[in-house]
Fold these 4 entries.
Entry 1:
Amino acid sequence: MMINALNSGAKSFMADFEDALSPTWDNILNGQWALLEAVRGRLEYVNEAGKEYKLNANTATLVVRPRGWHMTESHVLINGEAISASLFDFGVYFALNAREHKARQNGPYFYLPKMESHLEARLWNDVFTFAQEYFTISHGTIRATVLIETLPAAFEMEEILFELRDHAAGLNAGRWDYIFSFIKSQAHNPDYLLPDRDQVTMTSPFMKAYANLLVETCHRRGAHAMGGMSAFIPNRSQPEVTASALAKVREDKRREALAGFDGSWIAHPDLASTVREEFVAVLGERDHQKDQTPTVRARYFAGDLTDPKIPGGTITETGLRKNISVTLNYLNHWLSGRGAAAIHNLMEDMATAEISRTQLWQCLHHHAEIAGRRHFDQELFLQWLGEESQALIAAGISPHIPRATEVLKTLVLDPHLANFMTTSLTPILNTIYKHEEQGRSHGEKQPPTNQPSSP
């Protein structure tokens, strides 16, 4: 996957240790090993059929996203306490590759997730400064792009850029986590119920305000503004699905380019040429459009960033059931060690699953009115949860659906909205893989992994 991404023709490739990764110890260490090989241009792979994969002479620029500050790495203890996962991911990668990057004059580059405050940006800047001094690398060699993917961070864009001014490359409109954060930040306010997830788009008023403000802030400060991730993915066995996906991607990226963004993200390498065409149509031969500064500051205020009204938006049974099904399906992948999953021709990761989970919690605890039905309550949630769980099992999706069902049930019924699903899921993940490792070490049959487990 990494070889295909680096060879895709995209300008850059983000190796994601965060929302698109299930943080098993094997995944973390194998990911770091693959990055070490990729930085040196020698990453290669031969599959079971004998097909060889090698890096091209010219590849995408490598960018690494460490895990967020809320995560810990329980396999590494300092004074008996688990180390910050952010510091672990950054530290291992930097220690192994910083001097190689320096020799090749191509990095290191990072993407910083989940930030809510300029104080977190200041902490990252301190980490960068220390690391560069420790390895005698020039100050400012590290370049980092910050994901503005939380509602609090949308109010501190300039402060975040200021704190990272010696290391900042720009800001990214992390749309999916931003919707998750919007719901979470306003979860206890019944006036902030959003419609079905599919109805919340970048043309929704509060999302459009956030995106335009990000472009204006970045360009006024000489920083790059990166657009959001397009989650549509092609389906090679269904040409009509691929054609529909490409049309939606073109529309989305054309809107971003015209809004002033300098680049954007995709979830699948087959979309690279499509996105490039849309940006070239606007940028021409330019690498960016930082000279274009939209004059939106006079038109966007705090109320615009927090206005939940979406004209014509509704909460439906179909939407709520889809939230349940997608979350269960994704968690099954995550607990199986795969942090990104193609579901209904969309690339789902932890951010999109979190949107579904928090929408369910908010709708349940505020007894949201369902279009054409009664209000959403615990009885209805449990009925649909059971039905969607059984449907996935009947479809052959396993082995962790029972576990995922128990986790989602616990999180949605809890009167306190959990900040992140990963804090409930990681202990289960560690237990699953600890059992598997013990089974391998003793040559024993692995214990069954399809039994419900309390988070």
Entry 2:
Amino acid sequence: MNLLYNMYARVGIANPQSMNLSIMGEYHDYPPISEKMANPFVRCINSVKFLHYVFSGRSAMKKFSTLLSKVHFAKTASYRELYKSIDANIALLDESLIYHYASSAYSGSATSTLYRMVDKYFPDKRKYQSFLSHLLSNIPNIESADILSRLQDLASLIKKQEPGAVGFCADELLRYIRNNAEANAMHQAFLARHGHRCIKEAEMRNKPWRDDETSLMNYLLSIIRSPMSLVQKEGEIDYKKEFSFIKNPLLKAAAISYAKKSRQGVVDREHTKSQLIQIIDLFKTQYAILADLLVKNALLTDADLIYFLTHQEIGQLIDGKSSLLPLAERRRKAYAIQEELSFDDTYIGKPIANVFDVEQADGVMKGVPVSNGECEGVVHIVQSAADANQLQRGEIMVAKFTDIGWTPYYSIVNGLITEIGSSLSHGAVVAREYGLPTIVNVKGATKILKNGDRIKMDASKGIITTLSK
């Protein structure tokens, strides 16, 4: 973040607080700008260069399909040859990340620019964040919103054809789908479009839904057993009405233009994220095959250890550096502990894990409103897929974060609270499309709130009130 803040000294349109808003989803104090301010001409030239990069995000979308066709792995039973094949494709994985970052920069920068235009009209920054969440709702063609829509359609079909499906286990549901032509066709269409996705989908260690259908069936069962059905909101934004508080016609026109860019940026970002995960999925498959070959040849004691070595270290292991195995074991043990830690969004120097009091002082917590609405419900802390499978309809899901893998549960819960997130994060994007009240950046939510607490959410103001314990 220090590097980004220092852009302000060299790029005329850069602004520290707008960066905080677009990247971290809320306002933060920032350290003094350490660099000397460049002259206005240099800042102007750099602004043009920066805008050129930002708006290259849209063209980056078109490059993904070409990139996918370039990724090719050798079919071989030799672990050395397979490693060389993966190594030869690593540059393409890096390239795909660059394209996605360009798309994300377009989305974030359009929102940041909009912030700079209208910031002065919102002394209360939470009201601005609520306004922004409203402005970024009702966006058609969002890739991740399609996941829940398709699963709800499949669940509806199954409930209509087989009411007894509410009592199925995951294996029974999968057998039913495979033996039902219409349901199987919908299921296969879902896998063709979204089968490469899952919880923590960018991690090589996590299996995609295509290879872990038990998890997918559990998601589907949760929807089948719930009478609730989220419906994606429709309707156009009345931009002139939304920006009626701006009297300057030129400023109003510019704000409307960047509001449209912000909305399109959300669509582009979600689309390129899906394409990025497709490419990562190709590497997941190859690393899994490589792990099995290394176990077969006694270079690994178990296949899971491959995920606790870097790509370069795997090459060193193949070349005979067996001392890396104890290191991988230590990393795997440490990972379980690290998963439980929570840190401040920003820090200088060595990060120190937070320790939260089990009771709030006044029974009120605050966060960032990203999907407006009010609701009440019982808290259900979700740390894993197993926790999520226990969700009951009408509960409020509280998690450290959400990603694409949690989407199916949105049709069950009354509201969503996360410790990490922003108005452009996946959880916020999908929640807005289905009108699910959502508050993010609620520090220590999974530690302070407990299963069974009854709370009230005012997601238009970012306020959570504990009603009873």
Entry 3:
Amino acid sequence: MSLAERDLKVIWHPYTQMKTAQLPVPIIRGEGACLFDEDGKKYIDAVSSWWVNIHGHAHPYIAKKVSEQLSKLEHVIFAGFTHEGAVELAERLLKILPVNQQKAFYSDNGSTAVEVAIKMCLQYWNNKGESRTKILAFKNAYHGDTFGAMAVSGRSAFTAPFDSLLFDVEFIDLPDKTNLENLKSKIVNRKSELACFIFEPLVQGAGGMLMYEAQYLNELMAHCRNEGVLMIADEVFTGFGRTGKCFACNHLNELPDIMCFSKGLTGGTMALGLTTCTQQIYDAFLSDDRLKTLFHGHSFTANPVACAAALASLDLFLETSTIENIQRIEKLHKEFALKIKNHLKIKTTRQTGTILAMEWQTGNNTSYFDSLRDTLYNYFLDAGIILRPLGNIIYILPPYCITTEELYYIYSKIEQALEEI
């Protein structure tokens, strides 16, 4: 019995209708931007294995640091205890984050990093004796699949079975020159009940790689600041170079109060979440009243092995060669987007930093469930490329170590698909 057949007997896969699912591809090793299956076939991982793998697979430097940590300390309870990796990682990250970020709270994935941020904001107002329970978020947002994260994500087929159980959220359109003043008015009208505004800066990933301009987000944030509304920047996806700068918030003049991280935080090696905040938010929880404590934690909070992976990933991320690779990918993406943007089958192209999205003409509105998705997915898989279309939207989001030749191969197969499909 093959590994894939054994898998289907015992495993329930994410985002998968198991009744109609194809056999999963059994991957046995990775190297650089590529993965290899049990038959030796090579696949270029053009989506960084769900957007996490920024330095390539099985990176020897990260592997070395993780191995060293495993022989020293694999875990310790993080309530009442600490360890060197957690302290050093927080110190180093806070130095490169926006200057107002002063404290770090560890969790174990992106959804929980968002949950922590939401709870910080809601309890901040509660600790100050104010009743502010409404949250402002963008339509088509995605912040995770736990209940709080789902609640602040756009309503869709993914949330439909749970909609009646999710707390009420004020959803607004992405800001642009036509609606900015209207959005500001909505905030003025609701400010007394708004606990916070949560957003994915510049790019809504799971929503379809929807991109919007920093200028208008900056103005909206400035308005929130003037009206006393706390702001959460969800950088789980956009952090660590994806938008061409270290963090998407580096494109902005305004600063968020809270930031959320995961995915690229460990270079895709281990699960780890992080929520950072301002001194002002942290101080609202300092009290002789124990009921003002932030009662949140996870068994694997600040896991030492995950922290070691994150520190190694940060070393690599800050190397000059990584910055040059990000710039190289950005340049190549721009050139390819310009080359295909007028193709009859391309509705639109969108590009920010190392993220390139292409929306195909289908005759229907964009939909995650568009039948073109499976056709495209299998076409590229046969060609040895892992692309996971969001319905009729193909996106390329490669590890920074991907070679120019590998990118050219992906581009050529997309052009081929445009002629053949």
Entry 4:
Amino acid sequence: MNYTVSRMKTIKQSFEEIKKLDPDTAISQWFIRSLCKQGKVKHFMTGTKILVNFDDLINYLNFIN
């Protein structure tokens, strides 16, 4: 069986990874949080933290029209 494990990151960790990829990015933590609340990226709540599927977030950002 082949399993793939999603990279789950907090909003802050997701933002920091994006910042490493593009230091001049216009993406903010608030924007990532908004995408989660709107159901545009896969995520789940653990306590009070939102864990974002980082691969889904990157995929969404790459294909925004």
